[in-house]
Amino acid sequence: MMAQPKSSQLPALDANAQLHSDQMRKHIQQQINAKGGWISFADYMQMALYTPHLGYYSGDANKFGQAGDFVTAPEISPLFTQALAKQVGQVVQATAGDVLELGAGTGQLASDLLLHLADIGQLPQRYFILEVSANLRQRQQQTLQKRLPAALYARVQWLDALPAALIGVVVANEVLDAIPVHLIEWQAGQWLERGLSFDSGLVWQSQPLQNAALVTGMPPVQWPEGYTTEVCPAAQGLVASLGHKLQQGMMLWIDYGFPAHEYYHPQRNQGTLMCHFQHYAHDDPLINPGLQDITAHVNFTAIAETALTAGLSCAGYTTQAQFLINCGILQLLETVMPDDSARYLPMVAAVQKLLSPAEMGELFKVLALTKGLSVPLLGFVSGDKRHQL
User: Fold this and answer.
1) Residues of the chain with pLDDT under 50
2) CATH number given to 14-370
């Protein structure tokens, strides 16, 4: 594992970026003052990522791809989405329903998925996109208008809120990791909540836990002094809301994370919080607010348990590598002629990154939640790990 860079090793900000981050920091300071001098980390993360015009996902900076801060699976290889289309298409065909994508990024997954679903004759009636960022929504519209035939583009609708009811498929690739988390730490035999105050800058400050519900799902183990981790009730709330709205179909959650017994392992004593800035990964979320991504790994056990209480079934859980293999990504790669080395070798390298345990293959998981669906899901026919949840 590579050492994390220090703040002094991160790329320097230009004048415009520095001004943007200073404005974001001033807004956060005002909110800290308005709330009596302290905010939870969840409040900070919400502001740093989603404040209109200032937050990371709400600003104008490029976030995805080689020119941004990180690269997602659909941008690594088109074979990712071709394989995904087989699973999505199976459920679209079984339900004659729609597709809802949460947080569509650049729009590349949406455009590729629609094109591949058209190729295999399993198009949804409508393709909904729920996007909280006006800037990203505009970028998605440009991408889809450019890449899709008019008849396919006509099926796409952007939403401002979850639909009242849905039949079909919910697709969420790297969504849960960007939902604001609460930070808790174990000190002197009790849980505290880590938050922020302002003293010539943003500073960490812990307070006695006010909301006991934050730790009700924590395993009963002997926590080491200073143990710090995350809990994400907002992610569970999103899954529960979708569970009540989904009448028939499947939710597919693709993200990096662990089951609870790994997530809250005593040796993972500094949590999973991670930041991304111009392809540098580090663990200080207070640097460059508004300009860097802030994420936490997903507790898939908590997501699955929430789904069950919302009337859903846990229909599959496996690694990204196993899911893509089940969906035929290796067979798709075989359709590219090896003698066309200029095309074949980069595609092999990209698929290797998606499947390798040292890259995305093991850390990324795929969780399928269903309602009113009896067909065995293609992506989980082998290597299902639900027993680990």
Assistant:
1) 1-5
2) 3.40.50.12710
